[in-house]
TrEMBL record:
Name of the protein described by the UniProt record: Cytochrome c-554
Matches recorded under InterPro entries: Cyt_c-552/4 (IPR023155), Multihaem_cyt_sf (IPR036280)
Cytochrome c-552/4 domain sequence ranges: 65-142
Highest rank taxon of the organism: Bacteria
Length: 360
């Protein structure tokens, strides 16, 4: 793999970053040879593997709709920074400074701020769009209007979730995902939602406004399994359970793939060699090297395919078409990885998955 333009340095040929920097283990790796045509590997038009998108205010339902069936999940959410954003973000000095540099009058109404920090909804009476919540249910799981009825249809009016047949459940989940739900039945969809905002893909916002380039220390397991975890589904709403070891393994790798996808999307927006573009390119390269380390510990065709896609791109300015095409392909592969991988085969990665005492 080569990186030129934004990364004015050769990639090291004999070492890759740790999967877990605190573990102190350097893992040997060999560069992937040659590139491949993205279209020869995956169907980039797959709706299931599409990029995560901001909430559409015309399709927003609001958390008051979710609470009818997910009261405990909403209770957890209300104790998180995601919920507090609505009341706190616009008052922070750093946010005001960024807004001033960009000429933004209202953080709650400016699209570039709202896309990640707020949930907007159209008022049916006036037609006006206004912020109703901070980072909400629909920020992560998708605007609900088009999938809500599918989501809670268990096979008929008198059929409860406990009565639903396995066949109907599989069909219901597939239909809701196709309708736009980012359902955690596939953890890659959730990882995409996280990385869409924990990676800043706005050049002016960073280079002019001084906004951070994203959460450079983001790691999917540790950032999703602590304060914000709301996994009540297996206990029928009774307890906020930890995920199984197999699922955590799939999440660990899915987060790396989503990190690479999001970083390529950010790099695609770079038009000048400055903080935004250089940081995005370095982050993409770091994610790819971590996946290369993973590929030497476990056998996964999907990870190999991700690395082959990456080997065919150049991290340079004004290269949007190629980088977005690669990101779309990686999104599709990531979805398939999460859907098809049995976590048991990822057991060699256990030493690198953050333990519970490191979950945020």
């Amino acid at each position: 793999m080569t990186a030129i333009g934004l990364l004015q340095m050769p990639r090291p040929q004999d070492s890759a970053p740790d999967l877990d920097a605190s573990a102190g283990e350097l893992m040997r790796w060999a560069p992937t040879q040659g590139g491949v045509l993205v279209s020869s590997m995956v169907d980039t038009a797959s709706a299931a593997g599409a990029a995560a998108k901001p909430v559409d205010p015309h399709l927003t339902m609001g958390s008051e709709t979710c609470i009818k069936c997910h009261a405990n999940e909403v209770k957890v959410w209300k104790a998180t920074p995601h919920h507090r954003t609505f009341d706190e973000l616009h008052r922070r000095p750093a946010a005001k400074e960024i807004a001033s540099k960009l000429g933004v009058r209202s953080i709650k109404y400016d699209g570039r701020c709202v896309d990640c920090h707020y949930t907007q909804k159209v008022d049916l009476a006036s037609g006006n769009v206004h912020a109703i919540e901070g980072v909400s249910c629909e920020s992560c799981h998708g605007s609900a209007k088009q999938w809500l009825d599918l989501h809670h249809d268990y096979g008929g009016e008198q059929v409860t979730r406990a009565m639903e047949t396995p066949e109907h459940r599989q069909q219901r989940l597939a239909q809701s995902v196709a309708a736009g739900m980012r359902n955690p039945v596939n953890v890659y969809l959730v990882a995409q939602s996280c990385l869409r905002c924990h990676t800043t893909a706005d050049e002016e916002l960073v280079n002019v406004g001084g906004h951070p380039t994203g959460s450079l220390d983001f790691e999917f397991v540790s950032w999703s399994q602590g304060t914000i975890r709301h996994n009540f589904i297996d206990s029928d709403g009774q307890s906020n359970d930890q995920n199984t070891r197999d699922r955590l393994r799939v999440m660990f790798v899915s987060g790396m793939i989503a990190d690479l996808e999001a970083s390529l999307r950010a790099t695609a927006e770079a038009t000048q060699k400055a903080k935004f573009g250089v940081t995005a390119a370095k982050r993409a390269d770091r994610a790819a090297k971590r996946l290369l380390s993973v590929s030497q510990k476990v056998d996964s065709k999907q990870i190999e395919n991700v690395l082959m896609v990456y080997s065919g791109v150049t991290l340079k300015l004004n290269n949007r078409e190629q980088l977005i095409q690669a990101a779309d392909a990686i999104a599709d592969i990531g979805f398939r990885f999460a859907a098809e991988t049995n976590g048991h085969v990822l057991e060699p990665l256990d030493a690198f998955i953050p333990p519970a005492n490191r979950w945020k």
